[in-house]
Design a protein that fits this description.
This protein has 331 residues and is an alpha/beta fold. The strands form two sheets. A six-stranded parallel beta sheet has the order 2-1-3-4-8-7, with helices on both faces. Helix 2 runs antiparallel to helix 10 and helix 5 crosses helix 11. The structure holds thiamine diphosphate (TPP).
């Protein structure tokens, strides 16, 4: 009944080259950042957890590229890619993960509790499903303040099976709020496959609340961008929320501590990696002669050196003073 929404025809013909290049760069930045995070984690430099976003980059890149200044996002425990795509600096992300004073939350939040209001990252939450009702509150505030903006709520397929998903969709639909629910169906909630947890397509559930539900190839950044653009335009017209399900895959384990191989086969992982979003966009840009291989290589090299510099910078920063532990606590 539900099919992928196809935006493939000539998408690259109507997207300007500068945007195509920035979509590529955003995905490369997200991937290279996670490679550094994995390395820092192995060296014991990240206290706390970190959940890698590798494989899912097209979702954050495509959605955030469709946003305008003043638009907001609510992220979850797998949020490094969301932050990068929304314009947070590498230094602020590495700093936060390592608990340093230049972190997004001054090093006090860690990977799963990152906020950067200057970039529109309202917050991220480790409570699975917790971001959805809160994003409805953010959307209500935008509507009450008559702001022309919208909020994106990123969440996983596991979160789609919490009660708060249904409460959030119901209220957002009833009040026609400017929120877009983006489900990143990466096929697993920790080790539980979607086939063992989810009765229908997540996108299909939009129907129950009278809102559009779109199923998108989350390994294709142009499809994600197009779907997000439509949903954002709808929200800003005052027509209410949209539910987008992006079919994607996380290449690595659930967290940096997990190999991801106890509950998945290498063949399955390789199968998804053949649809790699970065490689797909790269091949398309080259085949359609929009960008040369050299230009793309230059971007990779530049991003790579920037990552190294940012890691070094964050590593050399001090930890926050101990008094900050209570400074931001309301009592
Ligand atoms: C309310 C709540 N229950 C359980 C957990 C433990 N937990 C952390 S991540 C996770 C799975 C989330 O899966 P999904 O929403 O699909 O996101 P993904 O990790 O696949 O990105 C669970 C159950 C939690 N953090 N919060």
């Amino acid at each position: 009944m539900f099919k992928y929404v196809e935006w493939k025809n000539s998408m690259s013909a109507i997207i300007p080259k500068s945007l195509l290049v920035s979509l590529y760069e955003s995905m490369v930045r997200q991937r290279m950042l996670e490679e550094e995070v994995a390395d820092l984690y192995k060296k014991g430099l990240i206290p706390g957890l970190a959940h890698p976003y590798v494989g899912q980059e097209a979702v954050a890149a495509g959605v955030c590229a469709a946003l305008e200044k003043g638009d907001l996002i609510v992220s979850n425990h797998r949020g490094h890619g969301h932050s990068i795509a929304k314009g947070v600096s590498e230094e602020a992300i590495f700093g936060e993960l390592m608990g340093k004073d230049i972190g997004m939350c001054l090093g006090l939040g860690g990977s799963m509790h990152s906020t950067d209001l200057r970039c529109g990252v309202v917050f991220s939450t480790a409570i699975v499903g917790g971001g959805m009702p809160l994003s409805v509150g953010v959307a209500l505030a935008l509507k009450m303040d008559k702001k022309p903006n919208c909020v994106i709520c990123f969440f996983g397929d596991g979160a789609a099976n919490t009660g708060s998903f249904h409460e959030a969709l119901n209220l957002a639909a009833l009040w026609k709020l400017p929120v877009i629910f983006v489900c990143e169906n990466n096929q697993y909630a920790i080790s539980v496959p979607v086939s063992k947890s989810t009765a229908s397509r997540v996108a299909q559930r939009g129907q129950g609340y009278g809102i559009p539900g779109q199923l998108v190839d989350g390994m294709n950044v142009l499809d994600v961008y197009a779907a997000a653009s439509d949903a954002i335009a709808r929200a800003k017209r005052g027509d209410g929320p949209t539910l987008i399900e992006c079919e994607t895959y996380r290449y690595m384990g659930h967290g940096m501590y997990d190999t991801g191989l106890d509950y998945r086969t290498r063949e399955e992982i390789n199968e998804w990696m053949r649809r790699d979003p970065i490689e797909r966009l790269k091949q398309r840009l080259i085949t359609e002669k929009l960008v040369s291989q050299e230009e793309l290589e230059t971007i990779r090299t530049r991003v790579g050196s920037r990552m190294k510099e940012a890691v070094k910078f964050a590593q050399e920063r001090p930890y926050p003073p101990v008094e900050w532990l209570t400074k931001f606590v309301w009592a």
